[in-house]
């Protein structure tokens, strides 16, 4: 893909801290259909976007196309230098993010057991005993310890044995390696009995409206896991929208929430002075300025900003000899992204309470989180959290649970911004927690280390404690943990 130099990100006036997919405020679109256009562009500064796209980006001599998707609809799309909406092109290393997706689908389907397994579980070793030390996780995160032995397109035609026997120093350190990345395609072939394209033509492409695309293949018909997938720009960015939609195309979930979280969460530091691209997931780049990126040689991009419900894609001339990365990323993140940093809309939540003691939580992001503001009818001095004993509190915090006492039953209206997710630190033993702005089944709580003891979610009413299956907004619950760790409550669709 080439080196990405630094550029100024100071104009961005928000911080994107999560790479977890958020619940969308619009219907999950059917990605097998053609994109729809947003007709009403009055909700953001569309004139500024039009100027950026038509007067500034258009001056870049290498740019062939750009598309901006907000809330599942096209808000801007332009093509330059004789390109068009129907032009297909080599998406280069953006292919890697498609390969990651196919591996995730194979794991979801049980065709590949786990990314934590060593490569000797997937590939013939040809006597390379060190494959016992390299995991699929290492391969997907560019930290396998292999050196890149083949140029393009030689790695596509290399045998499995040749790839396995590339120079090797041991896993753990990031090293951008096309040849090693191509081994993911060989693993997919061994695990599914299909080439990547054959597998994608059944499990991925139809759901993205992609019809049997060209994709370079070599040894055993195995398609290039690092590059060479040929798509239109509109087709390429559908992968970003799929991730934004938590793996759904319409009402069908074709990629699990778990894989999306894993693929777009930090796995390794690049450690190579690629400036703002310091983190790497499973064949996805994790820039310091938020969201995640698929990056292809010469300026092919998919940029996903989950918190803004924004997907951007670019297609650039791959014969350009200069640096396309710096200006393109600069325009995308310094100029386009801030246009969609829209004011949050307040909503109301009605919280009912009983006479005497109640377990309460904070259901919204509010300006004033003091208990006597949120619950004006509560008894002074009766807000208590729990951590190695009860602690008197003044302010409520997202994710924590509290006891609060009232003289008589009633209700209060809390006004604020929706909370879509919260990560909660648990201590070994009993914990008092609360959820988010929507009802969540306890089976949907993300517990990666399996620290929650089954059957230990308890709510409280005047009748006493009872097991619960749901975490309701504005309430809090007891839960027991076997160890210290973290859980995430989010309004994912599973």
Q: SSE layout and pairings?
A:
Elements: H1 46-56, E1 63-70, E2 73-79, E3 88-90, H2 94-108, H3 136-140, H4 154-157, H5 160-164, H6 178-192, H7 196-203, E4 230-232, H8 233-236, H9 238-244, E5 248-249, E6 252-253, H10 257-263, E7 268-269, E8 279-280, E9 285-286, E10 292-296, E11 300-305, E12 310-316, H11 325-336, E13 347-353, E14 356-360, E15 364-365, H12 371-374, E16 384-386, E17 390-392, E18 402-406, E19 410-418, E20 421-426, E21 429-434, E22 440-441, E23 458-461, E24 464-467, E25 470-471, E26 476-481, E27 485-490
Antiparallel strand pairs: 1-2, 1-12, 3-4, 5-6, 7-8, 8-9, 10-11, 11-12, 13-19, 14-18, 15-19, 16-17, 20-27, 21-26, 22-25, 23-24
What does this structure look like?
20% of the residues lie in helices and 24% in strands. It is built from twelve helices and 27 strands. It has helices spanning 46-56, 94-108, 136-140, 154-157, 160-164, 178-192, 196-203, 233-236, 238-244, 257-263, 325-336, 371-374, and strands at 63-70, 73-79, 88-90, 230-232, 248-249, 252-253, 268-269, 279-280, 285-286, 292-296, 300-305, 310-316, 347-353, 356-360, 364-365, 384-386, 390-392, 402-406, 410-418, 421-426, 429-434, 440-441, 458-461, 464-467, 470-471, 476-481, 485-490. The strands form eleven sheets. Strands 2-1-12-11-10 form a five-stranded antiparallel beta sheet, sandwiched between helices. Strands 7-8-9 form a three-stranded antiparallel beta sheet, with no helix packed on it. Helix 2 (94-108) packs parallel to helix 6. The radius of gyration is 25 Å and the shape is globular.
């Amino acid at each position: 893909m080439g080196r990405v130099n630094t550029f100024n990100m100071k104009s961005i006036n928000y911080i994107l801290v999560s790479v977890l997919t958020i619940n969308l405020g619009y219907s999950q679109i059917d990605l097998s259909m053609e994109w729809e256009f947003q007709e009403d562009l009055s909700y953001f500064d569309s004139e500024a976007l039009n100027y950026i796209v038509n007067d500034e980006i258009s001056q870049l001599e290498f740019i062939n196309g750009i598309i901006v998707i907000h809330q599942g609809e096209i808000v801007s799309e332009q093509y330059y230098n004789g390109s068009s909406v129907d032009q297909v092109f080599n998406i280069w290393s953006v292919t890697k993010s498609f390969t990651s997706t196919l591996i995730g689908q194979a794991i979801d389907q049980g065709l590949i057991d786990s990314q934590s397994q060593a490569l000797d579980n997937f590939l013939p070793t040809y006597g390379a005993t060190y494959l016992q030390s390299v995991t699929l996780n290492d391969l997907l995160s560019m930290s396998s310890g292999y050196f890149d032995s083949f140029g393009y397109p030689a790695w596509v035609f290399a045998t499995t044995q040749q790839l396995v026997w590339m120079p090797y120093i041991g896993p753990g350190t990031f090293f951008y390696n096309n040849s090693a990345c191509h081994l993911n395609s060989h693993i997919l072939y061994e695990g599914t009995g299909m080439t990547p394209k054959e597998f994608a033509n059944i499990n991925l492409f139809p759901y993205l409206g992609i019809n049997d695309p060209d994709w370079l293949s070599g040894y055993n018909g195995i398609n290039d896991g690092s590059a060479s997938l040929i798509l239109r720009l509109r087709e390429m960015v559908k992968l970003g929208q799929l991730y934004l939609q938590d793996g759904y195309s319409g009402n069908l979930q074709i990629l699990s929430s778990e894989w999306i979280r894993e693929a777009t969460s930090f796995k390794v530091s690049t450690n190579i002075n690629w400036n703002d691209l310091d983190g790497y997931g499973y064949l996805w780049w994790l820039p310091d300025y938020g969201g995640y990126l698929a990056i292809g040689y010469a300026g092919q991009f998919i940029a996903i900003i989950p918190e803004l419900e924004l997907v951007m894609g670019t297609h650039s001339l791959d014969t350009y000899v200069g640096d396309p990365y710096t200006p393109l990323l600069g325009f995308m993140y310094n100029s386009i992204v801030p246009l969609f940093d829209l004011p949050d809309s307040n909503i109301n939540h009605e919280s009912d309470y009983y006479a005497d003691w109640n377990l309460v939580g904070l259901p919204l992001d509010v300006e004033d989180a003091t208990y006597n503001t949120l619950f004006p009818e509560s008894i002074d001095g009766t807000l208590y959290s729990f951590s190695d004993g009860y602690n008197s509190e003044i302010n409520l915090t997202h994710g924590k649970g509290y006891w609060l006492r009232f003289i008589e039953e009633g209700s209060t209206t809390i006004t604020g911004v929706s909370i879509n997710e919260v990560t909660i630190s648990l201590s070994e033993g009993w914990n008092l927690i609360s959820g988010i702005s929507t009802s969540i089944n306890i089976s949907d709580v993300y517990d990666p280390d399996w620290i929650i003891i089954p059957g230990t979610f308890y709510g409280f009413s005047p009748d006493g404690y009872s097991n619960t299956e749901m975490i309701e907004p504005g309430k809090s619950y007891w839960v027991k943990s076997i160890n210290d760790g973290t859980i995430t409550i989010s309004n994912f669709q599973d």
